[in-house]
Design a protein that fits this description.
The complex is a heterotrimer.
Chain A lengths: L20 H5 L15 E7 L5 E7 L1 H4 L4 E5 L24 E2 L5 E7 L2 H9 L2 E6 L27 E9 L2 H7 L2 E9 L11 E7 L3 E6 L4 H12 L6 E5 L14 H13 L3 E4 L2 H7 L6 E9 L5 E13 L5 H10 L9 E10 L15 H17 L3 H7 L19 H11 L2 H4 L7 E11 L15 E7 L5 E5 L8 H13 L6 E3 L2 E2 L14 H28 L6 E3 L3 E4 L7 E2 H9 L5 E7 L19 E12 L6 E11 L6 H20 L5 E2 L2 E2 L17 E6 L17 H4 L1 H13 L5 E2 L3 H13 L8
Parallel strand pairs in A: 1-12, 8-30, 10-11, 14-15, 18-19, 26-29
Antiparallel strand pairs in A: 1-5, 2-4, 2-6, 3-5, 7-15, 8-13, 9-10, 9-12, 11-20, 13-14, 16-25, 17-18, 17-24, 21-22, 22-23, 25-26, 27-28
Chain B lengths: L6 E3 L4 H10 L4 E4 L5 H6 L7 E4 L13 E3 L4 H5 L2 H6 L1 H8 L4 H6 L2 H5 L12 H7 L27 H7 L3 E6 L2 E6 L21 E6 L8 E7 L10 E10 L2 E10 L6 E2 L1 H4 L9 H14 L10 H24 L1
Parallel strand pairs in B: 1-3, 2-3
Antiparallel strand pairs in B: 4-7, 5-6, 5-7, 8-9, 9-10, 10-11
Helix pairs in contact in B: 11-12
Chain C lengths: L5 E6 L2 E6 L6 H8 L18 E4 L2 E4 L12 E3 L1 H4 L7 H8 L9 H14 L5 H7 L11 H10 L4
Parallel strand pairs in C: 1-5
Antiparallel strand pairs in C: 1-2, 3-4, 3-5
Helix pairs in contact in C: 3-6
The chains are: A alpha+beta, B alpha+beta, C alpha+beta.
The structure holds flavin-adenine dinucleotide, iron/sulfur cluster (SF4) and FE2/S2 (inorganic) cluster (2 copies).
One FE2/S2 (inorganic) cluster sits at the interface of chains C and A.
Chain lengths: 774, 327, 156
């Protein structure tokens, strides 16, 4: 598939060091906890030690009497429920009638220091009735007498059920020559960003509330604060300082953020709630523990005929993004292959555990592992090479899936080709010695969500404002949230690219709802695509003004003027070029500082059936990864030695950042494969610490070889698509399938810990089934 | 996280430290590098109102082939080329402790006396309160083996097994003077995860002494853990052996990370002296060690798996020790 | 009542003296009392490395160091490691190689890498991996951090 050679850009497409790098390497970047306000109090929360309990009374009199305590709040003060999705508001700032998991917030205190706050919390007296606890989502699908939430399906703890059927799956399976089935089990995993959750709030006598918070979506926080506290949006100011990683875990408005604001209002003093690491684990909102059952069917020629998928998703105590999760666990299986018949039944069930929510590659990760393992099985049953099977079924550019996803650009075949040759696949597959293997896993992910979560009032998903004054510095305002992915750098680079100026002229301003135009923040891999388009539009508007000014200076038609480097070129007259500042000052003569605004709005997409919007995106990313592993067959310990990552993010606009996202994604994906797990004994989280939650170490990282093969996407800014989440997905099945090649054991349960590897080897041996001669 | 208030004492001699501990009987802890004690204190585990810092006591320092002061930092031992040459197993073990940043403060004394560990103990006050406390801190039952009135918290120090197979001795100072005991005698084999040491309250570890005879023993240490850094041992096997014309001249083996104390298996290794160690004999030994150990489910990896790994790790440690000896 | 004796030590090359109660760790002293916020708090339990500082030149976890025990010693934080103008070679390499994403782990890595290169000016890849294995990074997969340290060491 030859695509036209991409047009060269001055900055975009290169390796652009992060604009905030110098601040970060010197410790000068300011995170929320670095902010100190005069007279600031320490806020702490009291957590429920009960998995499920009715709160009969909470007596805080003794707690309030502790010297140095300024306020103690319980749930009834601000009982308005909220939640990230407008349709599933089931969270409260502080538990109101029930505590729903061990760790649920049941009171909050503001005091002069941490010790005093803790002492006060120790004096809160609760009377409760214990309620039956629900640990296993399988038990929540029927016969539930005391549901965790009011809004579940009657008699169950089912928060959301999705049933979809396209084509005729039963008929397809009847007609199929080959079928494969995988029943997957996935432990919950969590974001484990390094910066703990932290919020500062301050209510001032002018009737305004200012909130600084470690958030990915300042706008959703803004709305939730307004709804729960009953303060109009314009009297609340949300500021996002630097954020130390999010990965989805800072995208919901979180209870402590609202509780902190409530304490600030109550005390009239600034209040900071800084979470301990353990608190962060209880807040969770990570990837859902999931069980899925995936059946795939193909005809004699290897054409995929159908998927039949069921998923049972453990939601924890709240909804969070769960409705979306429930859809995604089915519909994100719809790429990168043509699937003519598709049936899905997904159920997300409340349990008395810390809520699950959105985590990097939300909804697309667990299902992808099971699907790709099933395809590996299918290829084996057919005696086909896994690459060939996938290539034969690849979605074509410009196609539409049965559930009406519109696929614009796809370079999936180039991903496959790149890693097949780079990895030496032909020589290695099924040919390496016992204990060593290669595996292929592929990926597919949304590049932004077509339907914004808050669509009333109707407005663009992204807006960018620019302001240039006589100094020639370009201030950029946007409520997109750089949480480390480098979006500020990209924003600056796009503006500089369009205007032809040096990057150092452009200053991306801190997110501040008082001055930044609304943008839906950093989640669902939307930033590059949506903010990028908005930034480009804003810069184009500014460019128009500057071109006109340059034309006026030289008394030439605007069509003769073009953007040069730090100047405007005049057609056929190189020495008449107008310096940037001259054009700027000319343009300012009538208006003063120049301003411009650009926005991006998605086009309506998707069918008209129920849930048709779920998973629709303006573009999709594609991936094909090969992993090579070495297994110590005596201990079950394995090492992933190399990952060849073929990725289609359209045009990579900042290669440094795209590589960084891929490397970081692989690390996170590897964690989920190798050992990360929210381990429970019943409803009790056993490992709320970075010591017992096993994030991989540098020595465990494979060599990573990245192949960026994307062609320009027609709608992406400068041809770009997402690279922040999709790169995680293929990691899991690539390693899983490589383990199969190494030892002949299918792993459908994650994480794949050494003891599981060993049990798999035992099982195969005891069944007398040799593999690679062993 | 905050520490409960305590008084900090900074004695400059062993006698002063021991005297303070005696005077403050039962209300004090020694703090060396603090890398084990302070996390426990932050979790409000068995905190005491007085801490005696060992920082300023010169006698607790110093490294030679014969003596390592209790306050010697793991990072310094790790980078001591002379020690590593003579005691490769010690270098293995020290380099496997925690992380480089922890080793930079952590001491060998603190490592030998590191608090035993358990999933139900190494948790915050809130966590423990929600489950109900356990025998080892504030409570009266065990969540691992509820039917027994005993604590199964695991001894998780990496350095002790190697020092055991090197026949190290420790110098202990107490109110009634000094004594020098075999390292093995520091640990209470008849105790449990709580009564794990033979030290009398307020007794201080002064130094580790390595006998002349340890120098020719090529020891090795093999550690099982999930990640190559951070994680405490889920099993640690140390082996030291000397071979003479293909026959075992001496062999010592110790295992940590499984029971409440690091355990030597002389009764299994002594009979091997004088034997040519065949693969079958090694396997027999490894299985015998495995049969003697009963891990419980209070760490990350499952007990069955840890137990099975005993056999593998013993074999591997012996193979490596043998290779080392052949060099 | 805990005594609040004066504590004095050298901080980033300059003597400081301030009150400090015994039950206080160096991290709290630096961030809260001295307002040096470049040193980060990621876990408070020795499990992330974000809080690393140099004590007498050794990389040290400030969350597990009793503040009173740095009496008379030299403490260098990320602020002290940073030259008055510009960046140190390690810092420059981190910027050029994109070794910062969210940046929250970065000061700890800079401290560790600085100490490593002082002790071992040309470490191997394996030595670098080992040296940074007490610093957690959730963003980068360590690839660009290792690249940056190699570059700072002149390995490429
Ligand atoms: C994240 C993390 C990971 C870890 N991983 C490991 C690991 O993998 N392997 C491992 O072995 N350890 C590990 N540790 C535990 C600990 O860091 C080490 O064992 C270290 O060597 C302890 O030494 P210290 O000087 O810091 O001890 P301290 O914390 O100062 O003391 C530990 C105990 O010994 C007592 N003590 C110390 N010195 C003396 C003395 N001279 N006389 C009498 N009593 C004394 C103290 O009172 C205390 O009870 C880890 C710690 C952390 C924080
Ligand atoms: S083994 Fe039992 S008594 Fe000992 S620490 Fe664990 S739970 Fe407590
Ligand atoms: S804050 Fe010190 S190691 Fe995490
Ligand atoms: S850059 Fe975010 S944790 Fe390292």
């Amino acid at each position: 598939m030859a695509s036209a050679p991409p047009p060269p850009y001055r900055l975009l497409g290169g390796r652009i060091p992060y604009v905030d790098g110098p601040l970060k390497v010197t410790g000068r970047a300011e995170y929320t906890d670095d902010i100190q306000r005069p007279g600031m109090l320490v806020g702490r929360v009291l957590r429920s030690p009960w998995p499920h309990a009715r709160l009969r009374s909470i007596d805080v009199r003794e707690a309030r009497a502790v010297p140095g305590v300024h306020a103690v709040l319980t749930g009834e003060r601000y009982p308005t429920p909220f939640g990230v999705l407008p349709i599933t508001h089931d969270e409260t700032a502080i538990a109101v009638d029930k505590a729903r998991y061990i760790g649920d917030i049941i009171a909050a205190v503001a005091a002069r220091d941490e010790r005093t706050a803790e002492e006060a919390l120790a004096r809160v007296r609760c009377e409760i009735d214990s309620l039956p606890e629900h640990a296993d989502p399988r038990m929540g699908v029927s016969g539930v007498s005391e549901p965790i939430q009011k809004r579940s399906l009657p008699g169950t703890n089912i928060q959301k059920e999705v049933v979809q059927h396209f084509g005729d799956v039963d008929e397809a399976f009847r007609a199929a020559r080959y079928t494969a089935r995988v029943r997957g089990t996935f432990a919950g995993v969590t974001h484990a960003f390094t910066e703990p959750l932290v919020t500062i709030a301050e209510a001032t006598p002018d009737g305004r509330l200012t909130v600084w918070s470690a958030t990915q979506v300042p706008h959703y926080l803004h709305r939730a604060l307004s709804e729960v506290l009953g303060i109009p949006l314009h009297r609340i100011r949300v500021i996002k300082p630097e954020v130390g990683g999010g990965f989805g875990g800072k995208s919901d408005p979180l209870p402590h953020e609202i509780a902190c604001a409530a304490l600030a209002i109550e005390t009239g003093r600034p209040v900071k709630i800084l979470f301990d690491r353990e608190d962060v684990f209880y807040t969770n909102h990570g990837r859902h523990p999931t069980q899925n059952d995936v059946r795939v069917a193909a005809d004699a020629e290897g054409n995929l005929l159908a998927y039949d998928i069921e998923a049972l998703i453990d939601g924890g105590a709240w909804s969070s993004f769960g409705t979306v999760t429930t859809y995604y666990n089915g519909v994100l299986a719809m790429g990168p292959y043509r699937i003519p018949n598709f049936r899905y039944r997904g159920r997300r069930v409340y349990t008395n555990k810390p809520p699950s929510g959105a985590m990097r590659a939300h909804g697309g990760t667990n299902i992808r592992h099971s699907v790709e393992v099933a395809l590996d099985e299918l290829a084996e049953a057919m005696g086909r090479d896994p690459f060939d099977l996938r290539a034969q079924n690849a979605l074509a550019p410009g196609s539409t899936t049965v559930n009406e996803f519109r696929i614009t650009s796809t370079s999936f075949l180039d991903c496959l080709n790149a890693v097949r040759s780079a990895s030496g696949w032909r020589e290695k597959f099924r040919a390496l010695p016992y204990g060593r293997g290669v595996g292929l896993g592929c990926g597919f992910y949304i590049s932004g969500s077509n339907s914004p979560i808050h669509f009333t009032p109707k407005m663009p998903q992204s807006t960018v404002h620019l302001k240039v004054d006589m100094d020639g510095g370009i201030a950029v305002h946007s409520m997109q949230a750089d949480i480390g992915q480098g979006s500020n750098t990209l924003l600056a680079a796009i503006v500089a690219e369009v205007l032809g100026v040096d990057l150092e002229r452009v200053h991306v301003q801190r997110v501040d709802s008082d001055v930044s135009p609304v943008d839906l923040g950093s989640y669902s891999s939307r930033v590059t695509f949506m903010m990028g388009n908005a930034a480009r539009a804003a810069a184009e508007e500014l460019k128009g003004k500057l071109l006109a000014a340059a034309a006026a200076i030289r008394e030439r038609p605007v069509s003769d003027i073009s953007v040069g480097h730090e100047r405007f070129e005049v057609a056929g007259a190189p020495d008449l070029a107008v310096p940037f500042l001259d054009a700027l000052h000319k343009a300012m003569e009538t208006t003063g500082a120049l301003t411009a605004s650009g926005s991006y709005q998605t086009q309506p997409r998707g069918g008209s059936f129920k849930g048709a919007k779920a998973g629709t995106a303006p573009a999709y990313s594609f991936a094909a990864y090969v992993a090579e592993v070495e297994v110590d067959v005596e201990t079950g310990v394995y090492r992933v030695e190399t990952i060849w990552a073929g990725f289609d993010c359209g045009r990579p606009l900042n290669r440094l950042a795209v590589e960084g996202q891929i490397e970081g994604s692989i690390h996170m994906g590897l964690g989920q494969v190798m050992g990360e797990s929210m381990s429970y004994r019943g409803t009790r989280l056993l490992n709320p610490s970075l010591l017992e939650y096993k994030i991989p170490m540098p020595q465990q990282m494979p060599r990573i070889e990245i192949h960026l093969v994307g062609a320009d996407d027609p709608d992406g800014p400068f041809g770009a698509k997402e690279a922040g989440e999709g790169p995680l997905i293929a990691t899991l099945p690539a390693v899983g399938n490589a383990l199969y090649d190494a030892i002949g054991v299918r792993f459908t349960e994650l994480p794949i810990t050494p003891d599981r590897v060993l049990r798999g080897i035992d099982r195969r041996r005891s069944e007398g089934r040799a593999w690679k001669g062993q | 996280m905050h520490l409960d208030p305590f008084e900090l004492h900074r004695p400059t001699t062993v006698e002063e430290a021991v005297g303070l501990a005696h005077d403050l009987a039962g209300r004090t802890d020694f703090v060396a590098g603090g890398t084990d004690l302070l996390p426990n204190y932050k979790m409000h585990l068995n905190v005491r109102p007085h801490l005696i810092a060992l920082e300023d006591i010169p006698e607790l320092r110093g490294r030679s082939l014969a003596r390592i002061g209790a306050m010697e930092r793991l990072a310094d031992i790790e980078s001591d080329a002379a020690l590593a040459r003579v005691y490769p197993g010690l270098a293995d073990a020290v380099g496997e402790v925690a992380t480089p940043l922890v080793r930079s403060s952590g001491t060998v004394g603190g490592n030998l006396l590191v608090e035993t560990r358990c999933f139900f103990f190494n948790q915050s006050l809130f966590w423990r309160s929600s489950l109900g406390y356990c025998l080892k801190a504030d409570g009266d039952k065990c969540h691992v083996v509820p039917q027994k009135e005993r604590c199964y918290a695991t001894f998780s120090g990496d350095v002790a097994p190697v020092l055991l197979v090197l026949d190290a001795e420790v110098e202990v100072a107490g109110p009634s003077g000094r004594r020098r005991i075999p390292l093995a005698a520091l640990y209470d084999a008849t105790g449990d995860g709580i009564r794990r040491l033979t030290l009398a309250p307020g007794e201080l570890l002064v130094a580790v002494h390595l006998p002349e005879g340890a120098r020719g023993r090529r020891a090795r240490y093999k550690k099982l853990r999930v990640r190559p850094s951070y994680d405490f041992p889920e099993l640690g096997v140390a082996v030291a052996g000397r071979w003479d014309a293909g026959r075992v001249a001496s062999m010592h083996l110790a295992v940590g990370g499984v029971e409440t104390y690091p355990r030597r298996f002389d009764e299994l290794t002594a009979p091997l002296e004088g034997c040519a160690l065949s693969d079958t004999a090694v396997r027999g030994l490894a299985e015998a060690v495995m049969r003697k150990l009963r891990p419980v489910h209070n760490t990350f990896l499952l007990p069955d798996y840890r137990r099975r790994m005993v056999e593998v790790y013993v074999r591997r440690a012996i193979a490596e020790a043998r290779e080392g000896a052949a060099e | 009542m805990p005594s609040r004796d004066a504590l004095s030590f050298r901080l980033n090359g300059h003597p400081v003296e301030l009150a400090c109660e015994p039950a206080r760790v160096l991290l709290d002293l630096l961030r809260e009392d001295l307002r040096l916020t470049g040193t980060k708090r990621g876990c408070d339990l020795g499990t992330c490395g974000c809080c690393a500082v140099l004590v007498d030149g050794r990389p040290t976890l400030s969350c597990l160091t009793l503040a009173r025990l740095v009496e008379g010693r030299a403490v260098d934080t990320i602020e002290g490691i940073t030259p008055a103008q510009g960046l140190s070679p390690v810092q420059r390499a981190f910027v050029e190689h994109g070794a910062t994403q969210c940046g929250f782990c970065t000061p700890g890595f800079i401290v560790t890498a600085t100490a490593l290169l002082r002790a071992n000016p040309s470490p191997s890849r394996a030595e670098i991996e080992r040296a940074i294995s007490g610093n957690l990074c959730r963003c980068t997969g360590y690839a660009k951090i290792i690249e940056a340290i190699r570059a700072a060491a002149g390995a490429d």
